[in-house]
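Notes to self after the Tuesday call (sharing in case useful).
The group wants a holo model before anyone commits to mutagenesis around the pocket. I volunteered. Ligand is fe (ii) ion. Logging inputs and output together so the record is complete.
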Amino acid sequence: MTPTTTLGGGVMEHFKTPFGLSDLTTASSIDNQKFFTNTLRTSKNHRFFTHPFMSTFDRSPPSPELASFILTSFYKIVSPFTGLLCLLGARAPNLRSRFALMDNIYEEMGCGDLQSAHPSLYLQMLASIGVRSESAEAAPTLPAIRMINSHLREVVEHGDFAVACALLASAEATIPSSFAVLARMAKRTFDSIDMTFFDRHGPRDEGHSDDAATLFAVSGKSSDFAIAEAAVRLDLEYRSQLLDEWVLAATQGSTPRRVGASVRPGATRDSAPPPA
Ligand SMILES: [Fe+2]
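Result:
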């Protein structure tokens, strides 16, 4: 099933939409939609979307050690995300907004199957390339990932709910392009890698982005605009810095010793050789 429908379109992936046309045709909702559509469109000009990382491994495939390092480091983005979504749900101003967020949370939670919750799927993927879950948990968090997560947490905990939804919409909108690169790199490097995590991402995240944008439309106000725009820009900058870190690791050399010697001894130490 490819979920691309949106709240405003009347259908979410798992839950029945709590919003109707009347919610999306108020004057403020229309203003909010115009603003945020433009914000997301403009954000596509950010360097994140044309970062050299997007094509680095098309020209020269990474070593298994480097690919393992990149995939292991990204676990620190995947791992806290369900908690942040639940925090956002707790801050929803009403039942309908909270209900709408649950569609995304339900998907992240494996549709009721713990083994299919996205952090579980990610660990299964790492296990299939020889990285144990204990090692993934213990691996150092890259500086850029710390900034991405602390910014998300700050906005979700202390920002306006609508601004946090705008940030969520933007973050989800980065997934199709960047995850496609990670998935391609993973598949090319490890023949027998478990790709279930990546199979559940892509068009589905465009739907989540649309849904979060709809939440901004129904709950935002014009005084949120500048703050939301700044939050989106900052998140993209931090995500670009993560790509910078990965490209730096790639250009520094891909042997375990060099990658490990740069900043990630834990990730390298914990990475097992790829399957033959
Ligand atoms: Fe996910």
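Two things stood out.
The first helix runs from residue 21 to 24.
The pocket of fe (ii) ion is lined by residues 108, 118, 201 (CB under 6 Å).
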